[in-house]
Specification:
- Helix content is 73%, strand content 1%.
- The chain contains 12 helices and 2 strands.
- A hairpin with a 2-residue loop joins strand 1 and strand 2.
- The protein starts with 16 loop residues before the first strand and ends with a helix.
Length: 291
């Protein structure tokens, strides 16, 4: 069987892994816990989940929120909404330790074959940012310019990601307001039925469902996803900063051990200890993770 020699910066494929990464259990579990707590509280109060289902206020809140959000951004951003939702529900594909191991492998090749020997391997890298960094080194670009180019890439990435987080936050701001509008509309309809007292109770309950929908969507979906997108963006930027340090270390001719130490300094103590354990238990494990 042919061995895969393509350099990777991603962890091994596991169940649940998709093109965007693996399903983020924290996000899924958090949403499930929040919505489950809401339904459990309803049942404990003697209610039934069907009591919260009413089409007209749901249409108003969802449609009104989407329409108001469309006004604030471009149509292109609205088309990216499914992508933003997908990113919020998945963990990033990059494994920080695999990133370190890949850069250490490039440092080893650079010492054995020279900087120009990295060109072919760099082309096979899936990560565009790392590929660009290695290609800049191969092209003989000054270190100051390499840092400037790559940091500009990071700034552009953060700006793109911020648009997705801002879009979700905007929707989270409009949803409760649309719920209030729906409640006011329902109360107006209810006041027209004062001659029929028997209908007032259900009408008032239906009116307040709109507010409930708006508050739930904002605080149990839109705003949490917005914060998760910001977190993901910061997480990715931190890994990219680590890649910059590795690229510049390779350009300086540092030995693989020094490249590894410089990059591990960006990681949490937990990940550093994990890397140390891997080296002690199986010296070739970290190289295998990058192969």
């Amino acid at each position: 069987m042919r061995r895969n020699t393509r350099p990777e910066v991603f962890g091994p494929r596991r169940p649940g892994r998709t093109r965007d990464g693996i399903v983020d259990l924290a996000t899924i579990a958090g949403l499930a816990l929040a919505w489950g707590a809401l339904l459990t509280a309803l049942i404990l109060e003697g209610g039934h989940p069907a009591d919260l289902v009413l089409v007209s206020p749901l249409v108003l809140v969802l449609g009104g929120t989407l329409g108001a959000t469309c006004v604030t951004v471009s149509l292109e951003e609205i088309r990216r909404l499914p992508t933003y939702l997908r990113l919020g529900l998945h963990s990033p594909r990059m494994d920080p330790l695999a990133v370190v191991n890949t850069m250490v492998d490039f440092a080893r090749r650079a010492r054995q074959e020279g900087i120009l020997g990295l060109e072919t391997s760099a082309r096979r890298l899936e990560n565009r940012f790392m590929r660009r960094g290695i290609e800049l080194v191969v092209d003989g670009t000054p270190s100051e310019l390499i840092r400037e180019i790559l940091e500009t890439d990071i700034a552009s990435m953060l700006q793109r990601h911020r648009r997705g987080a801002d879009l979700m936050a905007t929707a989270g701001g409009f949803a409760p307001t649309m719920g209030i509008i729906g409640t006011v509309m329902g109360l107006i309809h209810m006041l027209k039925s004062l001659s029929e007292p028997g209908k007032m109770g259900p009408a008032i309950a239906a009116a307040f469902l709109a507010t409930l929908y708006g508050v739930m969507l904002a605080n149990l979906f839109f705003l949490p996803i917005s914060n998760k997108l910001r977190y993901r963006s910061e997480q990715e930027a931190a890994i990219y900063e680590m890649i910059i340090e590795g690229v510049l270390a390779i350009q300086c001719g540092d030995n693989p051990r020094m490249v590894q130490m410089k990059m591990l300094a960006f990681l949490s103590p937990e990940l550093q200890n994990r890397a140390a354990r891997l080296r002690e238990e199986n010296p070739r494990e970290m190289e295998r993770r990058a192969a």
